[in-house]
Q: What sequence folds into this?
């Protein structure tokens, strides 16, 4: 008896008890549906985050800081000396240049950010300005803008604006890839959809505050004198918008938080209060470096470790996303395991259904089994016929279970997106069905079904044909 | 008679079979010895409970003897493992029962075909061979009928076709006419006789009907309470 014969015989037998077979298969369908939708959520999350990291070249990025900052201490407002190490290497322009010379480093530049107000026509918003080198236009995600292009040189009077920043100004740039729809509330608020072309090339006014302060005096009475005159004045810098960044997804982990990007040298020309001076101001330190952070990008992922070693030798603190990613991966593994376990419970319950169905089937077919033995069916044949029946239930269950799981995740995804899109997020796919999940689900379902069919099959094979032939 | 009468097809010596009901031993066969030659129709006559079906089940390899030997073509059934007995049932014997024992959910063709499936006949040859077998028993026109749609005589013909599927050495017929009216019974007996005469197939016939046994067989044994009482 070959496999095809057994499969045909198995299906014939299942088909004869359609209702019971269907109900048993539904049990497996629910189990596999639960299992695959759960795991596809886990893998979907992981894929979204990994993709976001990759799309932003975060695996080739390092962040250099000067001191070991005890974040918890700082969060609790403690800026005492023990939270900031005094003899740390200061981050200066010469250090940036030195880092740039390390083999494998593609680019190194200091983080320069400052708060400013943006004005485009009548629309205004407050944001953080981020200065980046023009060379950055070559890297992900800045090489792929929603519209326009990255600024061409470091002293251009130009800016690349974030889609979200425009939206805060009630200007929704049309997104051909993921068409934007406005809610009723948006319309009431006066939010408008505008063409990308009508933004790119326009001038935007960057209004920075200028503070005229001496160093913070140690004498509290003199602090009052500092604030006697209004130390703030506004400075307007017109910049041409050369490009709009793509919408970010909830998973985008962008190292740059700025709402608008401007060239490094242009930023140097803009008078402003920078966060550095505020920190300096607070820490009251005389010998600080010029920068808080230096961003480094390496040529390839393999350059990351050597460059990190070099930087550590230089005495600075280095942070890479890879460190966190390892932790994250472990987290995902735990999440997948928990989600998988829940699905497996459902499948386990379904396997009890299979056992029940198969035993019922043996009771009903005792005489048939006796006949099969009498005309030459070996125990192994009978066993295999029942195994094939159990495996067929598992296979059908997996097939329709995958369809159910996929359907459920599609619906869940639509629901999630209807909540996210009105908040200005780009549509996301929360779930992911990789090939290994599909094949794994089928294999797992069949293994569970075979295990469930084990006892019934052995029992069927051991039926005494003499008794079975007398059975009614 | 053709074949080689000096070497019997089946030699049974001092065969006993007991069933146990709890601790109580119920003997079904006691010390039975006889031989069946190739090509003959051998009849075993006895009343219900005389042990004749038990004897047939032992020869058919459906059951193990308590003691004694069944030598089938020089092979000792008592020493066979379960898998070997399955091969014995598949290729050496063809069984026919009083209650036909067709699988109710399968058509006449499928019932015959199932035996061929166990016999390892390739799928493409099975249908053709099943039709030939059913034609041979005069059922060429009832191929797609299920057992419930067949008369008793027709059902027994399907069972005979199925028993012949893998060219057995012997047909073991356990009261094949027990559920049939007298006319149909005669037809089935005639069919068995024809198979014996035309194909030379050995038949071991179990019946309670002394008259039929004596009509078709030269060799008749009578069983009573599990023992051979005369020849």
A:
């Amino acid at each position: 008896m070959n496999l095809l014969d057994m499969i045909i015989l198995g299906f014939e037998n299942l088909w004869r008890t359609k209702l019971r077979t269907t109900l048993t298969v539904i049990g497996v369908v629910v189990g596999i549906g639960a299992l695959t939708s759960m795991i596809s959520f886990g893998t979907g999350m992981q894929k979204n985050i990994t993709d976001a990291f990759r799309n932003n070249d975060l695996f080739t990025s390092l962040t250099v800081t000067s001191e070991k900052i005890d974040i918890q201490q700082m969060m609790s407002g403690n800026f005492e000396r023990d939270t900031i190490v005094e003899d740390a290497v200061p981050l200066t322009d010469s250090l940036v240049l030195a880092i740039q010379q390390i083999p494998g480093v593609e680019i190194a530049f200091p983080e320069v950010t400052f708060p400013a107000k943006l004005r485009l026509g009548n629309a205004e918003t407050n944001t953080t300005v981020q200065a980046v080198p023009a060379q950055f236009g070559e890297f992900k995600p800045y090489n792929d803008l929603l519209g326009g292009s990255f600024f061409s040189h470091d002293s251009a009077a130009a800016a690349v604006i974030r889609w979200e920043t425009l939206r805060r100004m009630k200007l929704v740039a049309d997104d051909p890839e993921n068409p934007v729809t406005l809610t009723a509330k948006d319309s009431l608020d006066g939010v408008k959809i505008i063409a990308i072309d009508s933004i790119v090339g326009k001038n935007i006014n960057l209004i920075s505050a200028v503070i005229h302060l001496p160093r913070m005096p140690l004498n509290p009475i003199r602090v009052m004198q500092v604030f006697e005159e209004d130390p703030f004045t506004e400075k307007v810098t017109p910049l041409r918008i050369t490009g709009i960044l793509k919408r970010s997804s909830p998973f985008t982990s962008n190292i740059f938080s700025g709402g608008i990007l401007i060239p490094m040298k242009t930023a140097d020309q803009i008078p402003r209060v920078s966060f550095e001076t505020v920190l300096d101001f607070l820490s009251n330190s005389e010998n600080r470096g010029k920068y808080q952070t230096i961003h480094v990008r390496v040529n390839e992922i393999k350059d990351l470790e050597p460059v990190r070693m070099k930087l550590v030798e230089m005495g600075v603190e280095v942070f890479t996303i890879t460190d966190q990613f390892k932790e994250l991966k472990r987290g995902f593994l735990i999440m997948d395991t928990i989600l998988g376990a829940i699905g497996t419970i459902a499948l386990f319950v379904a396997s009890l259904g299979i056992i029940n169905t198969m035993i019922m089937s043996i009771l009903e077919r005792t005489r048939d089994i006796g006949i099969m033995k009498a005309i030459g069916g070996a125990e192994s044949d009978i066993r295999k016929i029942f195994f094939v029946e159990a495996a067929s239930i598992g296979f059908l269950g997996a097939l329709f279970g995958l369809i159910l799981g996929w359907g459920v995740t599609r619906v869940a995804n639509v629901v999630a997106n209807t909540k996210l899109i009105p908040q200005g997020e780009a549509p996301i796919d929360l779930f992911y069905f990789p090939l290994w999940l599909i094949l794994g689900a089928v294999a797992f379902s069949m293994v569970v079904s075979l295990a469930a069919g084990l006892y019934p099959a052995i029992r069927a094979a051991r039926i005494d044909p003499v008794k079975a032939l007398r059975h009614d | 008679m053709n074949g080689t009468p000096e070497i019997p097809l089946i030699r049974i010596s001092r065969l006993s079979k007991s069933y146990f009901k709890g601790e109580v031993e119920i003997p079904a066969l006691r010390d039975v010895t006889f031989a069946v030659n190739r090509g003959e129709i051998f009849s075993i006559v006895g009343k219900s409970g005389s042990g004749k079906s038990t004897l047939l089940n032992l020869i058919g390899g459906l059951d193990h003897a308590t003691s004694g030997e069944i030598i089938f073509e020089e092979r000792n059934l008592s020493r066979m493992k379960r898998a070997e007995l399955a091969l014995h049932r598949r290729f050496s014997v063809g069984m026919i029962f009083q209650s036909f024992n067709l699988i109710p959910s399968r058509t006449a063709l499928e019932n015959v075909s199932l035996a061929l499936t166990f016999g390892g006949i390739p799928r493409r040859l099975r249908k053709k061979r099943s039709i030939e077998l059913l034609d041979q028993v005069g059922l060429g026109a009832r191929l797609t009928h299920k057992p419930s749609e067949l008369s008793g005589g027709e059902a027994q013909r399907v069972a005979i076709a199925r028993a012949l599927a893998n060219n057995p050495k012997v047909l073991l017929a356990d009261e094949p006419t027990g559920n049939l009216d007298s006319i149909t019974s005669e037809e089935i007996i005639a069919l068995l006789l024809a198979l014996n005469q035309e194909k030379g197939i050995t038949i071991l016939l179990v019946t309670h009907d002394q008259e039929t046994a004596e009509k078709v067989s030269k060799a008749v044994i009578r069983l009573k309470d599990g023992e051979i009482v005369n020849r």
Notes: Chain B is about 35% helix and 30% strand. Helices of chain B lie at 52-59, 82-92, 108-118, 123-136, 152-163, 182-199, 210-216. Residues 103 and 111 of chain B are 7 Å apart (CA to CA).
